[in-house]
Amino acid sequence: MIPHTLESKPRLLDSFRLSAIISGTIVFVYCLTVVIGWYCDIHGLKMLFSFAVPFGAAVSYMVLACLVLLLAIFPDRKDVRFFCAGVSLIAALSGGFKLLETIQEADWDWFNLPLSGELANGVVLQFPGQVTPDGTIGILLVSTSLFLMTLHNARLDPLWQILLTITGAVALLPVVGFLQGIPEFCGLWGCIKVPVTLAASTLVLSFAVYSLRPGSGWFSLLLEPDMLGTALRRSIFALMVLLPAFTGLKAGAVATHVIDENTASPALSVLNLVAAISIVISQFVYAYRREQDLRRDTEKKLADLSSEMSAGTKSGGASTNLAGFSPRYAVCPTCSKQLAASVANCPDDDSTMKIVDKLEGQILDGKYKIVEFLGAGGMSTVYKARHIVLDKILALKLLQPHLLGNARFVQRFQREAQAMARMQHPNLLTVHECGFLEGVPFLLLDFIDGKSLDILIAERARLSVGQMIAIILQVSDGLINAHDNGIVHRDIKPANIMISENVKGRELVKVVDFGLAKMLESEQSVIQQKISREGNSAGSPMYMSPEQCVGDPADARTDIYALGCVMYECLTGNPPLFGATVLETFNKVMNEKPLPVSTLVEVPQELDELILKCLEKKPEDRPSSVLEFRTALKDIKERMSGAIRTANMA
Hints:
The chain is an alpha+beta fold. It has helices at residues 10-40, 43-46, 55-73, 78-103, 133-150, 157-180, 196-212, 227-255, 261-315, 317-323, 407-422, 453-460, 465-484, 525-530, 546-549, 556-572, 582-591, 605-614, 626-649, and strands at 113-118, 124-127, 185-187, 190-192, 328-331, 338-340, 354-357, 363-364, 368-376, 380-387, 392-399, 431-437, 440-446, 450-452, 497-501, 507-511.
């Protein structure tokens, strides 16, 4: 499943946006130079690199480059997007009419718009004027792709991406032909000598358009953080630099008569081919070695963790050594008595206890500075940490020292580390480091500056259908990646879904706590059941599937049941089934059917049916995979969007 979550990769998003700005600027400056050459009748500017570019083509490409720059600089401005859509549509229609004129071998004077009076050389510059077939095709394909891209319609994404691919392939032919010493191409209009600089501009402009929305459709494969995505991305960036560089090198050398075109072609062709192959292979090797090094390093640290835990358990030394390790405790300001951090008042003088944390301000491993305490549960304590070198905020998760003698809790900690080390996805937490702090195992994870879904539901009472779908789609993307890696979460619930804002101000959702259940205590029975309980059945009672309640093996459909519970709670404010006690909740989960959501709030019928299907007692009656579930939910969203647009038009 290809994720639709480019926003979760802000640095990568900035890199592509910068690429679009640079590419658009190059094309704009080149075409502006040619246009100035036509207006001023400067032969050297009209014939840059010894290739003449028609005035109409130069103007069209200059306008398209301006649109790319506007969209890259103002990505969130709807008025800019609508303006660019309108201008690109006009450019596409202009290219279409010009292509039709060329095919019919007509001369439509009424179609040409004069952009100057009679110049000194007696020429009147017209738009589009005389444009070569390759220029016409380039204008038509690029402007059409840009128009469809600005519509931000998921169903149109494959269409404009195919058009861009065709555009790049068509533009690549003259560039490769020029490098190979093939000066002419023969086709429908006979043999023509294609201005290679115009073809290179088409290629660069196509890449710029793609860079505006690389996270949509099948193009998002290039954004994957795995070996394939990294290698493809780096190879394309390198080739986009290599091809124009070799083209400019040869064109400049030939134009200045440094070398003869026929003499230079074989040498440059071989050099270009060797360089291209070397770049692609080197990027795949680099990505593979980097991934393997990361995997081996993580596996080694996990093995060290397992060995040290086993040795400590057998000798009893680890338990003794760590019994006194309590980085966070309470101190009485009156009598200086030290007690557990959970104690609010001194039992001797009733003074308010002051919390002391020995880790805050400390630097671990020479690069991680502990900023502040974030929270603690029955199994772990979490701190906010800053990477000194990268200036990046992370979350430090420590296993509670008193649990080190309990093999089951240590295994859960190891299981979470191993599971998260295998997964890399924008909707899942990333493990950056694992090891020991004074003998205590720890994980360094992504820091999420946001709130959990259960807090969001408590603040808003319930979410709208649109808000719920937007969140669950991202949760689904993360779970698809987890299931593809053979990992079932088994504890999906609102408290394990974190929501924050990314660089574009949109909600970014991450699924947390793989294999490490929280063991918090509470006096309220409902809250108790929302928290993962200690026992053989992993999960939280209100979100546990019937098979979990009886201890049967869990699979992907177990997470689908929990997703149904989460959707139900998002829309109604309460889980679908719960009782006053854990046993009563288990009994309802096993034997009762929840009320349809539509009986409590207004929702589309198909969404109501999908939620109830997820909550079926038998796993085989639920969607067979999260991918199937996500596809159904996405279809519901698109039908809702279509209905809203139809209503607005009416």
